[in-house]
Amino acid sequence: MAEAARGKVEVNWEECKGCGLCVESCPVQAMELSPQLNHCGAHPARQSTDKCSGCGICYYVCPEPGAVTVYRLAARTIEVHDAAVV
Ligand code: SF4
Ligand code: SF4
Asked: Domain coordinates of the chain in residue numbers?
């Protein structure tokens, strides 16, 4: 069974300058540059897979304040109830 994503990244496309540092730094290759252009004529970064661990490296390497937001996703708890024995 595939491991659930532990993180999620949002990129503010108008703040991103398309430098690619986040793409190069992500240890699980969860980022890519979009083929689309923003108002600066840059190819903004975006999350490309659900492998994000929420480590925050892309946030720390990004030179543009406010371009990257990392969310750490809470572990989903599955409750298992025993069937009542009648
Ligand atoms: S938070 Fe970590 S794992 Fe997730 S995209 Fe950024 S560098 Fe990659
Ligand atoms: S490091 Fe920041 S500015 Fe550079 S591509 Fe990633 S989000 Fe954009």
From this structure: 7-72
User: What CATH class is the domain 7-72?
Assistant: alpha beta
| pLDDT (0 to 100) of residue 5 | 81
Q: Which atom in ligand 1 lies closest to the alpha carbon of residue 51? A: 3
Residue 1: partners with Cβ closer than 8 Å, 6 or more residues away = none
Which ligand places an atom closest to the C-alpha of 68?
2
d(CA 11, CA 56): 13
Q: Whose CA is nearest to atom 2 of ligand 1?
A: 55
pTM, rounded to two decimals? 0.85
Residue 86: per-residue pLDDT: 44
Residue 27 Cα, ligand 1 centroid: separation in angstroms? Answer: 7
For residue 46, give both structure tokens: 């975006």
